[in-house]
Amino acid sequence: MFLSDFLKPETEKVRDFTLIGILDLYYISKLLYEHDLVQQALIDIKLAIGSFLFIFVFMAIQTGSIIVTSLGILSILSSFVCTNLLYRYAMQYTYFGYFHIMSIFLILGIGYRRPVRVLRHLAVDRTHRVPG
């Protein structure tokens, strides 16, 4: 793409090195804005996937079971989806912002302990139960 591969680097070079202290250069381009937005979104998606995988691996190490980890994450994500459906359709709030997305990682990072502990204790209690 001509704008993002040639014009933008040249314009930024002129703005950052040639016109310092002489002239403030502002330029607006919808195509460059959309290109930068997509590039940043791809970077953010990679970071989100990496942090999700880190949380999954950490929980798997803590619990010692991939099944319990998967069920814990599934319970958290399903409650998040149900809450957002209620928020959007029952309460008619259409805004869904950046902090809503961040709350998934906050809940996964902090709130996984309760459902995972319950599932783990259930599994341990069932295996150590004495037949009577």
Automatic annotation (TrEMBL):
<dbReference type="GO" id="GO:0016020">
    <property type="term" value="C:membrane"/>
</dbReference>
<feature type="transmembrane region" description="Helical">
    <location>
        <begin position="93"/>
        <end position="112"/>
    </location>
</feature>
<keyword id="KW-0325">Glycoprotein</keyword>
<keyword id="KW-0472">Membrane</keyword>
<protein>
    <submittedName>
        <fullName>Uncharacterized protein</fullName>
    </submittedName>
</protein>
<dbReference type="GO" id="GO:0022857">
    <property type="term" value="F:transmembrane transporter activity"/>
</dbReference>
<dbReference type="InterPro" id="IPR052081">
    <property type="entry name" value="Dispatched_Hh_regulator"/>
</dbReference>
<keyword id="KW-1133">Transmembrane helix</keyword>
<keyword id="KW-0812">Transmembrane</keyword>
